[in-house]
Specification:
By secondary structure, this protein is mostly helical. It is built from 26 helices and 4 strands. The strands form 2 sheets. A two-stranded antiparallel sheet has the order 1-2. Strands 3-4 form a two-stranded antiparallel sheet. Helix 3 runs antiparallel to helix 16 and helix 10 crosses helix 20. One of its GO terms (cellular component) is membrane.
């Protein structure tokens, strides 16, 4: 029974916990992993959990240099994990402002708006979890495992092993950072080797195989495993090696160009350039595969992602209903025990923030959203409705998200489905009150964006509170740490988004002039999808024939017993993204096969803390952080000229030929994969 559970640190023990050094260290980790998550989510539409690596690093650095206690280490990982959760919610939705009808949302894609929405969404996610902690974390301790939270708690308790764990993660981080310098600064390693058949090829025109051979993609693939990585790349294979060759055979170039004009990817059919490098004099494209991808396949992929997210949500409806009823019922019955805290009857490990904060915070949130000029809406009344919808949907989906991650973990949380449902529900409410047209698209996206951020942060908050329950933390201090982490990380998340959105000199040379987000460099698949849905419902400006193809593609996958959302994301993204992720997953599959052959049994908890997983986490963090730093440096004119001076791509391509240069990069990626395998199979 949960009532008999004894935490590692007894409630009667008074130990250093909510200290300045624990908050500062947590904020630093939140900034690092928040920035890395922005980079990874914009490029691949994926994220990985930051709690365990932060806990491992906190144990090592804290014990060696700062003499931190286990409860301080818990505050460090709690504060730091908020950055990763909020970054995921921001990147999955707010870039959608750039893709609304006639650029109507671009004015809201500014730093202050992103900052406000990130902070509000992060606070909402933690705020709504205050009254739910006792019902979900305490009362259902035996029935809701919260896998990441439990693993993180075990890491903190096994602090004596922290040095060995962290050493592997640091090796991965250092390896990835050096690789990223060779690839993204010196360009000794090719960034995206590719091979493409010609359009005039009689049997297989404009088929393209490519790979963005970065350490973060290999690390992500290893972490998610061969099954999900295989489904992900399968979607890419369908798009780039089936649909694109088929459509390039059947659809005339002029028709593809007209479709690109309609979507805004090409100025006019008489203007050269645009996606695919259109040549109006020869009526052909320099890159047919890219032209077909942007004209048709992305919309098919968007339809598949929407359907996959919605199907995932529908499948969890029984869990949603039971969790909402159970949480509300438990809240009414238990309350939060403020009177007991006041007279000292409530133990330290059961002290939450006052439940009145939830009510006051919710009202304050609605009022601030109504009066802040940075948020869309031309009247206070309309903005009040938006704020009210945010709180209503937030209360529901925070409960849903917190319950679901308790069963299946944060990595499998159907955040996309919840956001899609929120966006569709908001649009339908708008239509019901007579609001239709492009002017209301940004307002709908605000609701969807904040709920996405809140639900993502609520899932992370639940895992953190579970870790705290296991180690014997004070919930009130964890909740305060989460508020601080949400605010501090949001400051840097907004800056990172804006820096990455600024095209570098290399991007401008390749035709990306206004925004890097939405280009092939940072596709932002979920953000594009959210904008597509808002436009489709409110402005009736959607190519439903392509979207419906994607919808039934997702349904087909579900009927085959395959998780459609992973397949759909793969169909939407470039194959250059999913192929290296698949290679990372294949390495994990080889490691698992060797263990099985050697009759080595590894539990799920041991796998989370295995050398392969920790090294892969280091690859993700190192590669993503290096990518962010290099992107920021490239944004400054002085740094850009220095980076250009040490770029060896042209010399190597001239000496080795383009094919030889690509082979050199592929060999470097293979060596990294070999090293990851060797690390992973060590005991």
């Amino acid at each position: 029974m949960a009532d008999k559970f004894k935490p590692f640190v007894s409630p009667e023990v008074n130990m250093k916990e909510f200290t300045i050094k624990s908050i500062v260290l947590g904020c630093i980790f939140g900034i690092i992993f928040g920035a890395a998550t922005v980079y990874l989510a914009l490029k691949a539409g994926l994220t990985v959990s930051a709690s365990i690596p932060i806990a491992v690093i906190a144990i090592t650095l804290g014990r060696r240099f700062f003499k931190t206690t286990i409860l301080e280490n818990n505050i460090i990982q709690t504060t730091g994990s908020a950055g990763e959760s909020i970054a995921a919610g921001v990147v999955f939705t707010l870039p959608g402002f750039l893709f609304l009808t006639d650029g109507g949302g671009e004015q809201f894609f500014n730093y202050m708006t992103i900052l406000i929405l990130a902070i509000f969404g992060g606070i909402l996610g933690t705020l709504m979890m205050i009254p739910l902690r006792r019902s979900l974390i305490v009362k259902e301790h035996e029935t809701l495992p919260y896998p990441e939270g439990t693993a993180c708690g075990e890491v903190l308790i096994a602090g004596e092993k922290g040095g060995d764990f962290a050493k592997t993660a640091f090796y991965g981080l250092g390896f990835a950072f050096i690789y990223a310098i060779l690839q993204k600064v010196m360009h000794i390693v090719a960034e995206v080797p590719f091979y493409m058949t010609k359009q005039v090829n009689k049997y297989f025109p404009s088929a393209r195989i490519s790979g963005e051979i970065t350490p973060e993609y290999m690390g992500v693939g290893y972490i998610i495993g061969p099954r999900i990585a295989g489904v992900l790349v399968a979607g890419g294979v369908l798009s780039w090696l089936a649909l694109i060759p088929l459509l390039s055979s059947l659809v005339p170039a002029d028709m593809i160009a007209a479709q690109l004009v309609k979507l805004g990817y090409l100025a006019s059919v008489t203007t050269p350039g645009g996606k695919g490098n259109w040549d109006p004099s020869l009526h052909t494209f320099g890159d047919f595969s890219s032209a077909v991808y942007f004209a048709y396949v992305r919309q098919i992929g968007a339809g598949a992602v929407a359907a996959g997210g919605f199907i995932t949500l529908i499948k969890t409806i029984p869990t949603i209903i039971s969790s909402f009823k159970g949480s509300i019922g438990s809240f009414k019955k238990e309350g939060t025990g403020e009177a007991g805290i006041a007279n000292g009857a409530v133990p330290r490990t059961e002290r939450d923030l006052n439940v009145k904060i939830v009510l006051i915070g919710s009202i304050a949130l609605i009022v601030l959203m109504a009066f802040l000029p940075q948020l869309p809406g031309d009247s206070i009344g309309k903005k009040l409705l938006v704020g009210l919808l945010v709180v209503i949907f937030g209360a529901f989906f925070v409960t849903v998200s917190s319950r679901i991650v308790g069963l299946i973990g944060s990595s499998n949380n159907p955040i996309s489905g919840m956001t899609i449902a929120t966006l569709m529900g908001t649009c339908l409410v708008f239509i019901a009150v007579g609001w239709s047209g492009k002017v209301y698209e940004p307002m709908a996206l605000v609701v969807g964006g904040m709920i996405c951020i809140a639900a993502a942060n609520a899932g992370g908050t639940s895992q953190d509170l579970k870790s705290g329950y296991i180690v014997g933390a004070t919930p009130m201090y964890q909740q305060l740490a989460l508020f601080i982490g949400a605010i501090v990380s949001s400051i840097v998340i907004g800056l990172t988004v804006k820096f990455l959105d600024k095209p570098t000199a290399a991007m401008i040379a390749n035709g990306v002039t206004d925004h890097a987000i939405g280009s092939t460099y940072y596709p932002a698949p979920q953000g594009t999808l959210m904008a597509t849905l808002a436009k489709g419902i409110l402005s009736y400006n959607l190519d439903w024939q392509f979207v419906l193809v994607g919808v039934f593609l997702a349904i087909t996958m579900e009927l085959c017993g395959i998780k459609s959302l992973s397949f759909a994301v793969g169909a939407y993204l470039p194959l250059s993204t999913t192929l290296p992720i698949f290679i990372g997953g294949a390495i994990r599959g080889l490691v698992d096969k060797k263990r099985k052959k050697d009759n080595i049994q590894v539990s799920a908890e041991e796998e989370e803390l295995g050398k392969g997983n920790l090294f892969a986490t280091g690859l993700v963090a190192g590669g993503a952080v290096a990518g962010v730093i290099i992107a920021i440096l490239a944004g400054f004119d002085g740094s850009a000229s220095v980076l250009a001076s040490i770029n060896l791509e042209e010399k190597l391509s001239h000496t080795l030929g383009t094919g030889g240069y690509f082979i050199l990069g592929t060999v470097a990626f293979a060596l990294m994969g070999t090293y990851l395998y060797r690390v992973a199979v060590k005991k």
